[in-house]
Amino acid sequence: MRNLFKRNLLKDESGNAAIQFIIYAGLISFMIFGSIDYWLTQQRISQVEFIKQYYLDRVRLEGCLTIDDESSLISRLTAAQFNNITINTSAKESMGEPRILRNSDDLDGSEIYLEIMCEPDPQPFLLAQLIGSPAPGPFTIDVKGRALSERVDP
To answer: Is the confidence at residue 134, as pLDDT, over 80?
Structure first.
């Protein structure tokens, strides 16, 4: 009787399909959710990149980041649900820095950069953190751009 029970127990495969379904469904759900989260994060980065490109063009024409442009940039990012906004540039009018003018003899001196760092709200889930990514702290978007100033006179 005992041998018959062991043989039947070992041959019983009625629960294998359910277990396989649970494992495969979990893996597929994990991959789909990860793909959607990655796509949404890329869309947020593209949004900041677009805003950066617009204001880099403004800085290129003005020779500096004007006070109006700086406040407009911050308000656009805040309206798009970004926090902890940091703006670095070659010349900020709010800091009293002079405009960078076009100089065809010294192109390096005519270069203007604009860097925007911000954190999206809500933070992305980032499945990479579940599988051992060593990135502690909040997710920060950091976009940079460079252009030559077209401003001729102060």
So the answer is: no
**Domain count of the chain?**
1
* Best CA proximity match to 59, nearest among 29, 92, 26, 27: 92
pTM: predicted TM-score of the whole model, two decimal places: 0.76
Cβ atoms within 10 Å of 41's Cβ, excluding its own: 17
Can you give the residue range of the structural domain that contains 75? 15-148
At 42, the amino acid letter reads Q
- In order of 50, 111, 148, 150, the CA distances from 92 in angstroms are 20, 14, 16, 16
